[in-house]
């Protein structure tokens, strides 16, 4: 290389064009013009978006197969419960728009905080749970027909049948005399038979599945006139450690039922109505 070449500053190796570095530089230049407030807002929005996309997981240690319950729900207050339920809704509704998803979210105000009950939420403890959480449970007025003060929602007909038996035997032990408990599920019962029974008899407690309860509401056979509480049998898990919120085919009809206008309406209708057991 000649001295003239050296003086001209001709490089021995040409510099490669770094597109990544250039894009980063442009990003820095764009950010340099942003105010501290806008940067902070952007970071907050990004964190919020990540939080939305993340599905809350249950600790494996909370799944007690011996008792057949998910003990995580014992520790969830209203806000944590709403976050968890709505995260599952978001998981199962990936094809929905953000507006459509929000219409399927259970409002926090509708969920009663039941964390004061610290015992395992087993089938045998359901009556005691109701007694502790509700204090004074009064019988439905004699003139009422098909209008229970308490509904219990279970995942399947078999589970609902077990809940029915548990309430029939457990409630009297808690001082609730002669409770009228109705079978509102499909196992061994036709819907026409249930419609007739609801029109003729008073009901204190109704035990059913999401689809059958929705059908009875659609036919105006089941009334919410006296309804004080809706208990969701959420802690129960099957042999595969799955509960009513862990399967799309169970979760979606449950959410549709809970968000019906008979339960959750405008204003404060439905406040603290739902109790997740």
UniProtKB/TrEMBL annotation:
Pfam families: CMS1 (PF14617). Residues 21-53 are annotated as: Disordered. GO terms for cellular component: 90S preribosome; nucleus. Residues 41-53 have a biased composition (Basic residues). InterPro entries: Cms1, P-loop_NTPase. This is U3-containing 90S pre-ribosomal complex subunit-domain containing protein.
């Amino acid at each position: 290389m000649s001295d003239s070449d050296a003086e001209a500053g001709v490089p021995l190796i040409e510099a490669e064009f770094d597109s990544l570095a250039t894009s980063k530089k442009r990003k820095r230049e764009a950010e340099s013009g942003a105010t501290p407030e806008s940067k902070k807002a952007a970071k907050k929005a990004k964190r919020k978006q990540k939080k939305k996309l993340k599905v809350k997981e249950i600790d494996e240690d909370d799944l007690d197969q011996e008792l057949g319950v998910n003990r995580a729900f014992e520790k969830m207050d209203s806000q944590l419960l709403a976050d968890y339920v709505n995260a599952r809704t978001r998981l199962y509704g990936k094809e929905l728009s953000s507006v459509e998803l929000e219409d399927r979210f259970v409002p926090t105000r509708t969920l009663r905080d039941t964390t004061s009950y610290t015992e395992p939420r087993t089938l045998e403890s359901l009556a005691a749970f109701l007694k502790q959480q509700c204090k004074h449970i009064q019988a439905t007025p004699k003139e009422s027909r098909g209008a229970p003060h308490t509904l219990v929602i279970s995942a399947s007909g078999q589970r609902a049948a077990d809940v029915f038996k548990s309430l029939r035997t457990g409630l009297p032990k808690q001082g609730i005399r002669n409770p009228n408990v109705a079978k509102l599920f499909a196992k061994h019962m036709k819907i026409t038979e249930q419609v007739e029974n609801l029109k003729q008899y008073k009901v204190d407690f109704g035990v059913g599945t999401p689809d059958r309860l929705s059908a009875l509401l659609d036919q105006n056979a089941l009334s919410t006139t006296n309804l004080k509480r809706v208990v969701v049998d959420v802690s129960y898990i099957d042999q595969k450690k799955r509960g009513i919120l862990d399967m799309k085919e169970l979760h979606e009809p449950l959410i549709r039922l809970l968000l019906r206008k008979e339960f959750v309406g405008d204003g404060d209708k439905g406040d603290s109505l739902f109790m997740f057991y």
